[in-house]
Amino acid sequence: MEKEDKDILLKIRSSRACIRDGYRMFTENFRRIFRHTWPLAIGFAVLSAVASALPVLVSPTLTFAGLLVETVAVIVLLWLANKVLHKRGFLEKTPKVGLKPWLRHLGMVLLVVIVCLVIVSILIMFTSLPAVIMMAANWESQMGVINGDPVGMPDYVMWLSIGAFLIAGFLRAYVWLTVLCPLYLTKASIAMQEKEREEFNQKTNTKNNEEKAIVYRP
Description:
Blueprint: H1 2-9, H2 15-28, H3 30-58, H4 63-87, H5 99-104, H6 106-127, H7 129-146, H8 156-177, H9 180-215
Helix pairs in contact: 2-6, 2-9, 3-4, 3-8, 6-8, 7-8
């Protein structure tokens, strides 16, 4: 059964099939993915909450710092999640793919990445809506204070904002994790194409050598 599953994963696919099968793979196995990655999602949620709180609750001048923290958090999340899912056996090991094969299939890779980023952006818009509302409310309050108005936000709003940032960050963690399966299938497809290419070249070279041996045989 495991061999059949591996054969299904490690096969040549088009970019469209990598995206379709990747998201289907994620949704059908979400409970298993969640079981392996929820500690990472919590860690990401904390970092994401810090990134959101810096410009909103501390100072608007820390917007760039917040974006930097969020970017680093996404990179670390994807790297660790990929490592954990391979270690737990959810993602099978694929043949190594060097730089040249990636460049040779750059169009396919870019198409998969762009489509995944568009889907992620749309999902993040919905999952981050409560946090965005809290951000807007806090910014309006701060602008009012700067203009001389009295503080119009109760004290508990700060903790409510932090809670919203944490929940939104946890949801965003799994939005970002959706890109792992399409990218994994893309890598597997490239590896299989390169394997077939090498086998074809070897057969061609063997055939040419045999023909040369026949021609030059004394």
